[in-house]
Amino acid sequence: MEIKAKNIGVAIKGKTIFNNVSFEIKSNEMVAITGASGSGKTTLLNCLGLIQTISSGNILINDKNVTKWNDKQKTKFWHEHATFIYQDYGIIEDETVSYNVTFNKRQSRDKDVNEILKNVGLDGRGKELASVLSGGEKQRLGVARSIFKNANVIYADEPTASLDAKNRQLVIDLLKRRVQSGATVILATHDERLVKECDKIIDLSKFETILNKG
User: Fold this and answer.
1) pLDDT of 182 above 80
2) Which of 28, 22, 20, 41 lies closest to 2, judged by CA?
3) If residue 61 lies in a helix (H) or strand (E), which one and from where to where?
């Protein structure tokens, strides 16, 4: 899934967060949004995910201008194509691990869910409450959700924040595998180790796109 930003800007309550930002994200790329604290990394991520409305410019997904999509069109996009991995995990603590993958009681008993949990290092944990998981396990559960959905594009806000080295690498490897499986992954991050694994960097402090590879 290709995403293009053309001279986009965001102002919130009269304060300009960023302005005149342009770049292109190609299919099957893992892209890092970087910049100093307060530079607008999460805001830009939310704009690309059609969660935050831009103040100027245009956003195109697969060459279709989605800037003025209504709520119904945005909901359809998220239902059919996208998933979000949250910094605070986005986990329902009092539901089972399997339910947190599917958000569906019936589907949570599917054999595919067990295989996905195995792939993210949560083999045999499906019936446990999500509240018993560690931070790293909850983050991997968020990745499991994106695998189950088979999303075309994955948005992730600081997916390795506060993780130890082992869990950080596990999450990085899982995200790279999603790219290899055909997904586009867009990350807001300050994790230099994660940034080095990405194909492209959108550096908000410089308002420019830097290619790492190719």
Assistant:
1) yes
2) 28
3) strand 56-61
Domain at 3-211, CATH from 3.30.300.30, 3.30.230.70, 3.90.1150.10, 3.40.50.300: 3.40.50.300
Dist. CA 122–CA 29, nearest whole Å: 26
Judge whether 82 and 49 are in contact, CB under 8 Å: yes
Q: Are 171 and 87 in contact (CB under 8 A)?
A: no
Structure tokens at 20: 């005149």
Distance CA 60, CA 69 (A): 11
Which distant-in-sequence residues (6+ apart) come within 8 Å of 17 by Cβ? Answer: 9, 10, 11, 40, 43
Q: Is 178 left (phi over 0), alpha (psi -120 to 50) or beta?
A: alpha
pLDDT above 70 as % of the chain = 95
Higher pLDDT, 174 or 212: 174
Provide the pLDDT for residue 208.
Answer: 46
What pLDDT score does 51 carry? 95
